């Protein structure tokens, strides 16, 4: 008997060991990247998807670690060839999730987190049944504004644009399965961890393992009798 949980899906035995797909969205400045990086460090067997983007790397960002940084031309070619599970134009740059990378993780039974915007999350939900959506909310608009200005990575114009986008994005919270407020980093990570563990304990995730356990109750034991 396998000791690790295997997760049958409604699609039948061929898809039995697929991993869970989590999508996390939040307005820019909410701290979702930091929160999710902490999450994958403290939850075993949970990987963070690496997106492709056409934006240039910020100081300190490393290609193939923070993002796969590519040109607009290469991104557009990948769109044409259907290489993306989802993609979106965010703040004038392209961002996308590789369909092949995602499929490889899920089909080998690994749970995966995508940190993507609300447009991308809609595409993933419509394509992948069983996607678990988590929306991270800032405690308030003034706190978000303070955080965006505090990190001072962007120009005033870019900050204004991010705040405007935040107003629009926050309205999408009701499309998600779970809501988490990032009031304090550690507490926010704990809430996300609880969501992942709860999803792993659902009937659809645990059925195969439970059936294997139940079988040990019905099997005729020969030893010692
Ligand atoms: P940033 O440039 O600050 O790293 O990210 C800007 C926005 O793009 C964030 O809201 C982030 O979640 C989103 N984003 C990052 N990767 C992807 C992706 O692969 N797909 C989509 N749709 N959005 C992404």
The total number of structural domains is: 1
**Could you give the order of the helices and strands?**
EHEEEHEEHEHEHHEHH
> Tell me, what's the shape?
globular
- Classify the helix fraction into a percent range: 40-55%
| Superfamily (CATH H level) name | P-loop containing nucleotide triphosphate hydrolases
The proportion of residues in beta strands is 15-25%
- Our measurement of the CA-to-CA distance between the termini, rounded to an integer number of angstroms, reads 23 Å
Provide structural commentary.
This protein has 225 residues and is an alpha/beta fold. The chain has one domain (22-217): 3-Layer(aba) Sandwich (Rossmann fold). The protein is 43% helix and 18% strand. The chain has helices at residues 32-42, 72-80, 99-107, 118-127, 141-151, 156-170, 185-200, 203-218, and strands at residues 21-25, 46-48, 52-53, 68-69, 84-90, 93-98, 111-115, 132-137, 178-181. It has a five-stranded parallel β-sheet with strand order 2-7-1-8-9, with helices on both faces. α1 (32-42) packs across α7 (185-200) and α5 (141-151) packs antiparallel against α6 (156-170). The model is unreliable at 1-15 (pLDDT under 50). The chain binds guanosine-5'-monophosphate. Guanosine-5'-monophosphate (5GP) is lined by residues 28, 51, 55, 86, 88, 90, 95-97, 115-117, 119-120.
């Amino acid at each position: 008997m396998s000791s690790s949980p295997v997760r049958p899906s409604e699609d039948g035995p061929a898809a039995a060991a697929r991993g869970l797909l989590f999508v996390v969205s939040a307005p820019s400045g909410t701290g979702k990247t930091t929160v999710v990086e902490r999450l994958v460090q403290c939850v075993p067997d949970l990987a963070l998807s690496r997106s492709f983007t056409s934006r240039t790397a910020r100081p300190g960002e490393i290609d193939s670690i923070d993002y796969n940084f590519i040109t607009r031309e290469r991104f557009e070619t990948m769109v044409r060839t259907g290489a993306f599970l989802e993609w979106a134009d965010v703040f004038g740059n392209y961002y996308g999730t590789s369909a092949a990378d995602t499929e490889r993780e899920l089909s080998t039974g690994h749970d995966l987190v995508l940190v993507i915007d609300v447009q991308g999350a809609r595409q993933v939900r419509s394509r992948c049944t069983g996607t678990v959506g988590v929306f991270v909310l800032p405690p308030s608009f003034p706190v978000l504004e303070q955080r965006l200005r505090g990190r001072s990575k962007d120009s005033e114009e870019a900050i204004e644009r991010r705040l405007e986008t935040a107003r629009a994005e926050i309205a999408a919270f009701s499309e998600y399965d779970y809501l988490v407020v990032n009031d304090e980093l550690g507490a926010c990570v704990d809430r996300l961890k609880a969501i992942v563990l709860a999803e792993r304990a659902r009937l659809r995730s645990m059925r195969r393992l439970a059936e294997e356990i139940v079988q040990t109750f019905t099997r005729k034991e020969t030893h010692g009798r």
